[in-house]
Design goal:
Length: about 425
């Protein structure tokens, strides 16, 4: 009986492991609204990756994309381990180290799928359906609320999500979906997808998304050779989205506009005026700076921003009314500040190392491989844009999705082949 089960599993996974990995990679995105992010899909992919390594260890290790992924993983994982030296809460850091190890094994599974061109094409096509589904459900929510789906307490459009995660994930998946439609010569449909995704993203009420939408329009211009006519169309489209967003959700937009004007307030200190304008971001960044200064090498420990916040934040800030530790912010709303505050210079150097190495791999690839990698590169450029003040990075609901697109980038640069030397 034991041998029969083992044989069945071996035949099942060895025959279809790459297809399973592709389906699970798509599932990890699609199921995000119902599982609090990418946790469920990542866990299943991790088990699949462990099985693959056990059954074909040498073969897997000799694949160039896997070798590159091991280097990238260590550049991220070692700073997490090093942050134990001065961590505020050892348990939190150990939990982060443990679940990040699962990301490595899930990455092995993902590369099995995304190192194949036809699988990357299928992946991008699936994102088209996901973007259309989420965006149209959000539009229906906005029009028919409260009979269809409730808005958030602040009046934010969140679609199937109960938080702002939809807008962040749409920023990741829309460029790949857009490129897929462009490759299929569906130009009008690609612009419509970009339009509705931008609309529901801005309608969620995050002002920083506006610059991200500008980057999305830049994507359209770059892929169509910039000229005056197309630039004009892009500007008209952006203006239309902004006006539609205001008239469809003007209460929230008006609140954000008033927050922006609070910078001119004479009743508050300069710090608090700017803090209100940035919806508390200055408080978060200032606390992160203090954490980094207190432990510049290893930080305060992975996943410890919330624990450290009351110790390092100013007392006369937007968050002074927060008495319950569970209500303290979990991250600094800036990738680089979060990385430096929690992982110190070791984490910062690790990220710079990844940037340099990734650029080198990109430059050493041929023109076709570079072009194939762009649907995965562009969303990463948006996420890691320095002034981005929305999403975190060291969190189980988002980091696996960022890694997923990075692995798509690695898979598109290199064909799977056996080698004993890393180029």
């Amino acid at each position: 009986m034991h041998l029969s089960i083992k044989k069945f599993l071996s035949n099942l996974f060895n025959h279809d492991i790459k297809k399973w990995s592709l389906l699970l990679s798509i599932f990890m995105i699609f199921w995000s609204p119902f599982s609090g992010g990418a946790r469920s899909g990542m866990l299943i992919l991790a088990f699949l990756g462990i099985y693959k390594i056990i059954t074909a260890k040498q073969k897997v290790i000799n694949e160039i994309p896997i070798q590159r992924w091991m280097i990238i993983f260590l550049a991220l994982w070692i700073p997490l381990i090093f942050s134990l030296f001065n961590t505020i809460n050892t348990i939190n850091t150990l939990v982060a180290i443990s679940w990040f190890l699962l990301i490595f094994f899930s990455g092995v599974s993902i590369l099995q799928a995304l190192s194949i061109e036809k699988h990357r094409v299928k992946f991008s096509k699936s994102l088209v359906y996901i973007v259309f589904l989420w965006a149209h459900l959000s539009i229906i929510q906005l029009i028919f609320w409260p009979s269809f789906m409730p808005l958030s307490p602040e009046g934010r459009v969140s679609g199937l999500f109960y938080d702002l995660h939809q807008g962040i994930i749409l920023l990741l998946i829309t460029p790949a979906a857009y490129f897929s439609l462009r490759e299929a010569k569906k130009n009008i449909l690609s612009l419509y997808l970009l339009f509705i995704s931008s609309f529901v993203t801005i309608a969620s009420g995050s002002r920083i998304y506006l610059y991200m939408i500008l980057l999305s329009f830049l994507l359209h211009l770059v892929t169509n050779k910039i000229n005056i006519k197309k630039t004009l169309y892009a500007c008209i489209g952006l203006i239309a989205i902004t006006f539609l967003t205001y008239f469809s959700n003007n209460t929230l937009i008006e609140k954000k506009f008033n927050d922006s004007l609070s910078i001119f307030s004479i009743e508050d200190s300069k710090f608090n005026s700017l803090d209100k304008t940035l919806t508390g971001r200055l408080t978060l960044w200032d606390a992160g700076k203090s954490m980094f200064i207190s432990s510049p090498i290893s930080g305060v420990g992975a996943k410890n921003y919330r624990e450290a916040f009351p110790l390092f934040s100013k007392k006369d800030t937007l968050f002074k009314a927060f008495n319950d530790p569970k209500q303290f912010p979990s991250h600094s709303h800036n990738i680089y500040i979060q990385l430096l505050s929690e992982l110190g210079l070791v984490g910062g150097f690790g990220l710079i190392f990844i940037f340099i190495l990734s650029y080198r791999w990109y430059r050493n690839s041929d023109i076709t491989q570079r072009k194939n990698s762009w649907p995965f590169i562009f969303p990463l450029l948006i996420i890691f844009f320095p002034i981005n003040s929305t999403q975190p990075i060291l969190t189980p609901w988002l980091l696996p999705l960022i890694i997923l697109f990075y692995l798509g980038f690695l898979g598109s640069l290199t064909k799977v082949q056996k080698t004993n030397a890393l180029p």
